[in-house]
Amino acid sequence: MPRSLVHPYLVLTTVALLWAGNAIAGKLAAGHISPMLLTLIRWFLATVLVAPFALPHVRADFQAIRARLAYLFLLGVVGFASFNAIFYLAANFTTAINITIEQSAMPLVVFVANFFLFRTAVARLQILGFALTLVGVLLTTANGDLSTLLSLDLNRGDALMVLAVLFYGGYTVALRFKPQIHWLSIIFVLSSASLVASFAYAAIEFALGLTRLPDFQGGAAALYTAIFPSLIAQTLYIRGVEMIGPNRANLFINLVPVFGALLAVMIVGEKLHPFHVVALVCVLGGITLAERGARRHRN
Questions:
Q1: What angle is formed at CA 171 by the lines to CA 62 and CA 2, rounded to 5 degrees?
Q2: How sure is the predictor about 297, in pLDDT bands with cuts at 50, 70 and 90?
Q3: Where are the domains of the chain?
Q4: How far apart (Å, rounded) are the C-alpha atoms in residues 248 and 271?
Q5: pTM to 2 decimals?
Q6: How far is Cα 85 from Cα 198, in angstroms, rounded to an integer?
């Protein structure tokens, strides 16, 4: 498709929908496949599926890849394998609604990192939007009771999601330094690095006696994660960052809880509490304000 016909908002909204589905798949997989094995199967299938299309480009980009191989390997380990491993582990301890809302903290991580590391200029509306988003995330993490934050009495799954958010936020910031090579080359190298790390995580899980082989539901969840959040969404996300930059692109992750809440209620049967509604209003308001502030600052 010609570049002029691909709107970044459509690209990144699709990413948000597919990642919301990843939270649902992770929740449906809980108890049907162990999280590290799920991560391994996801990246094994993703790497195998993308290889036939990517290898010609990898050969053409080999010199650039070799020069930055260690850096690309680290990106794959942090942004793909580690984020997903923690994500699926969190799904065993908290709800899909909470997981998707807590992902909305990613833009804040990217914003803070870009500001302190690269002195990226920001508008006041952006700061207000990030702050409003943070309120929604904190409200969800605390399950509607902010006093639990003061006592650090957090659900294990919610605490794990905060850690996962830090991993993916760092990955997003680091994408600005990726080599200028074909997008299929990037996906294949990062997926391969993630596969290597996933083998290590699955081995540790097995050594601890925590491995659970997949049944039909676990296998179906693994297949979904390999195709949609792994290949399609990651590819579109990289393209979105290229189109409008990491700060603005990461804002669209705030749409994940909207789609995630709807899917969790419809598919998983989770209950939407009043504090979830308040949190969703906050993150939607945050993305609106921050995006408006970015446009004004750019103009």
A1: 60
A2: low
A3: 11-298
A4: 31
A5: 0.81
A6: 8
